[in-house]
Amino acid sequence: MTDTKAADPENTLYMDLKDGRVVIELRPDLAPKHVERIKLLVRKGFYDGTPFHRVIDGFMVQGGDPTGTGRGGSDLPDLPAEFSPPSKARHLRGVTSMARTADPDSANSQFFIMLAPSSHLDGQYTIWGQVTKGMDFVDMIKKGDSRANGSVSDPDRIVKVQVAADVK
């Protein structure tokens, strides 16, 4: 299950889900510190087996928290915001962006994948990538309870994430 057409293997992720592979093009031009963090965590196997703990149909899927509570992260320090102006990047379907608290400089390991455009997020969250293949698999991720802000009981999990350059 390799994708030999990765434009830049060092800036391409393969995210394997239960239903198939999602290919994500990283955007170091927009968020170099966030891309560096994502690749570091991927190479440590941090995301393997983590749940999609918050999934809001028609909005986004959120993961990257090993505790599955929405309050966890890695043991690394939080990152300073790298917000892009809407003229450079927008929260459209397939965009990957960092989750954070009310503090703009609190992104750590949690991220979300947009299921639909959400312009109210533009310039407020750090965009670090774009799904280029496999959005149909993202669409299959188990949805959460709309009455509980998308909280998912028995959530789907990431099987494995790899940097394409590391796949032999």
UniProtKB/TrEMBL annotation:
| Domain named PPIase cyclophilin-type: residues | 20-166
Which biological processes are named by the entry's GO terms? protein folding
Q: Which UniProt keywords apply?
A: Isomerase, Rotamase
Q: Which PROSITE patterns match?
A: CSA_PPIASE_1, CSA_PPIASE_2
Which reactions is this enzyme annotated as catalysing? [protein]-peptidylproline (omega=180) = [protein]-peptidylproline (omega=0)
Molecular functions per Gene Ontology: peptidyl-prolyl cis-trans isomerase activity
EC main class here is isomerase
InterPro entries recorded: Cyclophilin-like_dom_sf, Cyclophilin-type_PPIase, Cyclophilin-type_PPIase_CS, Cyclophilin-type_PPIase_dom, Cyclophilin_A-like
Which Pfam families does this UniProt record tie to the protein? Pro_isomerase
EC number(s) per entry = 5.2.1.8
Q: What does this protein do?
A: PPIases accelerate the folding of proteins. It catalyzes the cis-trans isomerization of proline imidic peptide bonds in oligopeptides.
Indicate the family of this protein. Belongs to the cyclophilin-type PPIase family.
Output the PANTHER family linked to this UniProt entry: PEPTIDYL-PROLYL CIS-TRANS ISOMERASE-RELATED, PEPTIDYLPROLYL ISOMERASE DOMAIN AND WD REPEAT-CONTAINING PROTEIN 1
Which named protein is this?
A: Peptidyl-prolyl cis-trans isomerase
Which organism is this entry from? Answer: Rhodospirillum rubrum (strain ATCC 11170 / ATH 1.1.1 / DSM 467 / LMG 4362 / NCIMB 8255 / S1)
